[in-house]
């Protein structure tokens, strides 16, 4: 007789309450005709208030928000956009779709975000933007990046898909760059299933993206079916926005739980006396939303293969750990951008030693216990 398998511990899972169900039901029942934008407008207003920005446009994804924003900045054929090598492809794909070229720079070993010194070195006359991705909710060195942007007249864009709840010197992630983009994919801290948000404080950029987001029809265009430019179709639906309205009402609670999960892991790692490791880094005067708890075990320079052995041991036990992002310059579409000395890059050194730990809303303390004890048995 084999023992009853323990509950599978998911890597992420949204927190959906009666409130989300109630709003979504109302949108499905009543949100049509003259009410078809009600929840969208309400979600945008609530999101602006949370973030402290002037303008927000709900979108079908973060990728779409980035695509429209970069298009509005005039990024196109042959231009260059600088971003970190450690990243999800969603940040790089719209650059390629615009006919521009991503330029990858290395990350810093502790924040896992792009290294401002390398950003400045990578600037050429073709550079049209720098994308600051707040990886796993950690924060980029925004003061340095904004100063570089200003010195060279290059806009800094924030991909804050993973950084709801992260605060840099009093300002929320996503509110500091020329524009910011958020994701409400089902794995993110707040979700609408699929969805995103474009945010900015720049009134002209807002008007441009608003026009682009509505198939190129300007707000003041009175003629029906009369596009002013060729735009995009990246709108969020009212039903998704209804779920978003409930999530944003609960945003502080949802962020707090993510932060608590990170703290609970830290405590457990101490208790189990796991040797050398580091978790998501919180810089001084900053708060991190801790979307995804990550841990780097041992010293990355030792080039351990701990990530693989942890995945091998934990997955069969129903513990859904995931690999740290592979360097974009190592994946098929970008192999021509591989650095000459990849073994010197943190983007290559960290993933073999790092792992995403399950941090779903609703994870139980016993589960964090169980995960940590399994890790200890592999590592210690
Ligand atoms: C999730 C994610 C995206 C993509 O978001 P979508 O809403 O799926 O388009 C973009 N950038 C980063 C850093 C992400 O984590």
TrEMBL record:
Gene Ontology terms describing biological process: polysaccharide biosynthetic process
InterPro entries, per database record = DegT/StrS_aminotransferase, PyrdxlP-dep_Trfase, PyrdxlP-dep_Trfase_major, PyrdxlP-dep_Trfase_small
Query: Active site at which residues?
Result: 188 (proton acceptor)
Which keywords fit this entry according to its UniProt record? Aminotransferase, Pyridoxal phosphate, Transferase
Task: State whether keyword Transferase applies.
Answer: yes
Q: Name positions with the PTM N6-(pyridoxal phosphate)lysine.
A: 188
From which domain of life does this come? Bacteria
Write out the GO MF terms: pyridoxal phosphate binding; transaminase activity
Q: What does the sequence similarity comment in the record state about its family? A: Belongs to the DegT/DnrJ/EryC1 family.
- What is the protein name given in its UniProt record? DegT/DnrJ/EryC1/StrS family aminotransferase
């Amino acid at each position: 007789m084999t023992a009853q398998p323990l509950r599978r511990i998911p890597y992420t899972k949204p927190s959906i309450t009666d409130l989300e169900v109630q709003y979504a039901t109302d949108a499905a029942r009543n949100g049509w005709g003259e009410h078809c934008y009600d929840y969208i407008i309400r979600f945008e207003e609530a999101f602006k208030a949370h973030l402290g920005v002037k303008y927000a446009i709900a979108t079908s994804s973060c990728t779409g928000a980035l695509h429209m924003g970069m298009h509005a900045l005039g990024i196109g054929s042959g231009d260059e956009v600088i971003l970190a090598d450690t990243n999800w492809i969603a940040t790089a794909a719209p650059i390629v779709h615009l006919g521009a070229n991503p330029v990858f720079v290395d990350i810093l070993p502790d924040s896992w975000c792009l290294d401002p010194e390398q950003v400045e070195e990578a600037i050429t006359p073709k550079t049209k933007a720098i994308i600051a991705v707040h990886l796993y909710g950690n924060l980029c060195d925004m003061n340095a990046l904004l100063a570089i942007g200003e010195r060279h007249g290059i806009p800094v864009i924030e991909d804050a898909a993973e950084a709801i709840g992260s605060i840099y010197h009093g300002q929320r992630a996503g509110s500091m760059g020329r524009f910011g983009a958020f994701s409400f994919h089902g794995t993110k801290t707040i979700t609408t299933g699929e969805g995103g948000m474009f945010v900015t404080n720049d009134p002209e950029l807002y008007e441009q993206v608003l026009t682009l987001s509505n198939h190129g029809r300007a707000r003041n265009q009175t003629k029906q079916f009369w596009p002013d430019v060729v735009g995009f179709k990246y709108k969020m639906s009212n039903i998704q926005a209804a779920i978003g309205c409930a999530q944003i009402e609960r945003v502080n609670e949802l962020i707090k739980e993510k932060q608590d999960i990170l703290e609970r892991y830290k405590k457990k790692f101490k208790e189990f006396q796991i040797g050398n490791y580091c978790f998501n880094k919180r810089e001084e005067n900053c708060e991190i939303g801790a979307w995804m708890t990550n841990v780097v075990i041992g010293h990355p320079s030792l080039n351990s293969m701990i990530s693989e052995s942890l995945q091998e041991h934990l997955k069969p036990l129903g513990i859904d750990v995931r690999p740290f992002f592979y360097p974009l310059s190592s994946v098929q579409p970008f192999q021509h951008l591989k650095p000459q000395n990849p073994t010197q890059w943190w983007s290559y050194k960290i993933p073999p030693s790092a792992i995403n730990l399950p941090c779903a809303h609703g994870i139980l303390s016993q589960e964090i216990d169980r995960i940590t004890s399994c890790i200890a048995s592999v590592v210690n």
